Amino acid sequence: MASSSPIPALKVLNQTSISPPVGTIPETTIPLSFSDLMWLYMGAVERLFFYSIPSITTTHFMEHLLPSLKSSLSLTLPHFFPLAGYIIYSPTPTPNFHYHFSTTNSIPFTVAESDDDFKHLTGDDARSVLRLRPLVPPLPPPSGDETTPLMAVQVTVFPNHGVSIGLTINHGACDGTSTANFMKSWADTCKSGSAASFITPLFDRSLFIYPKEFDSIYLNLAMKFRELISNSSIANSSNKSTNNEAKQDDLVIGSFWLSKDEIEKLKQWVSEEKEAVHCSTFVVACAYVWTCQVRARGWETNRIAWFGFPVNLRGRLRPPVPEEYFGNCLGICVTSAEVGELVKEDGVSVAAEFIRRAIDELRDDALRYVSTWPEIGRTVGDKQPLSVAGSPGFRVYDRDFGWGRPVKVEVVSIGRNGAMSISEGRDGEGIGIGLAASKQEMDKFRLEFAKGLQVLENFS
């Protein structure tokens, strides 16, 4: 159960900004693709990396660890310079949005100290979203003015316990693949003490080939959001989530783990129920969480349950887009099933089959549903779908800044919409799941999750 104690105050020690070294990057403008526009107003991604450093003091961190953290970020930014820039709306000659970097741009960088319970925050039990959110830096939402900042960083010291690095990135800036490349580069540079050799991002928009009518579809959508925000009170808020603070008070994030052995048993279970069907680790893990959630919610059996997740298009397009491509190169995969099918004894197999089919439909034409994604979003949005953030392929637990591997990585932004996050396990194997839900639903979900694992123990 989440802690009911008051939220400990956060002491801000220092607020500054980090820029690329002077003269390394000229003023640059890069157009947004339809995929960038699609995510521009969908909210920022907030991710927390926790590191255990039991003997750490604030003074030692400020004097010995912080300088290399800042300098390595500065050395990394020339390779990922859009993150230090803005997204600019240009009304003429035709309305459009662009990344824009000027030599005066920088990233907000906050250093704070917290006396909150480090063990609780990095545990698996339900933790209040309101306890985790102060550890990620605020980033103004896209507004109706000329510029939109893209990234902010906050480092928080927990004396005698550890450190957290909070990262907030406007989703319009880039997708999880690009963010993972950035974090790997920053961590490797910090650990090595010099500019590390890493995959150099590619910004050439001609590498991402798609029908150009998609640009007009998502430009119109972005313009509608821009107009809405310009004419609403949201434009005057520094954080969208504060408008729903009463609702947020009941939201918690819980952590769940599927070992390598449990994943293999899930795959065997699915393949026996659905002959000749091979499912990936991602598919069976998501199928298991989806069915556990539906059971926990106790919905009527004739209700339709929805599940959706972003898909990396880089390797699915012809010609393929290089993995080094920086920005958003994502599709959306959505599927649904009757609750009655998902809560049956073979519900995991049913769920896996629906998810696998949705992915398979993208093999022949990964962009086949692009023009209908806005309508799908409007249709599904109010039906409490389970959506996914992250990927085991991002290898978030490999991010070592010289202090060892993180003991916990959380995607705090799933607390906005009751989503799930997925990553590799803490030891690099298996799967880690983060789930956001109400306190009552989380308790029920934990029971369903545990019951399912008991069934797996008897499976061979």
Automatic annotation (TrEMBL):
UniProt GO molecular function: acyltransferase activity, transferring groups other than amino-acyl groups
InterPro entries on file: CAT-like_dom_sf (IPR023213), Plant_metabolite_acyltrans (IPR051504)
Family matches, as PANTHER family: PTHR31625
Protein name in the entry: Phenolic glucoside malonyltransferase 2-like
Pfam families, per the entry: Transferase
Entry keyword set: Acyltransferase, Transferase
